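Notebook p. 47: complex prediction with zinc ion.
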Amino acid sequence: MITCTEAVKQFWQYLDDDLAPKQQQLVDDHLGICRQCCGELEFARVLQSVLEDQRSVDELPAEVRERMARFVKELER
Ligand SMILES: [Zn+2]
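Predicted complex, structure tokens below:
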């Protein structure tokens, strides 16, 4: 089983369908048991659509940027 950090690190590739089937399965398995990451995946999904629209992190709403920074910090604790 992979950790939250490992799962989150792979979210972008997961969302892009860029993971090997085996890796994707690992992320899937983790999301199946981890509520924290499920919420974050939703967040990443929203974030990705924002990025696709705007193409620049600088243009992200401050609220989204803040949440992203906070989440990364939490993972590093
Ligand atoms: Zn998790």
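Notes: The mean pLDDT is 81. The pocket of zinc ion is lined by residues 4, 7, 30, 34, 36-37 (CB under 6 Å).
Next step: compare against the earlier run before touching the bench.
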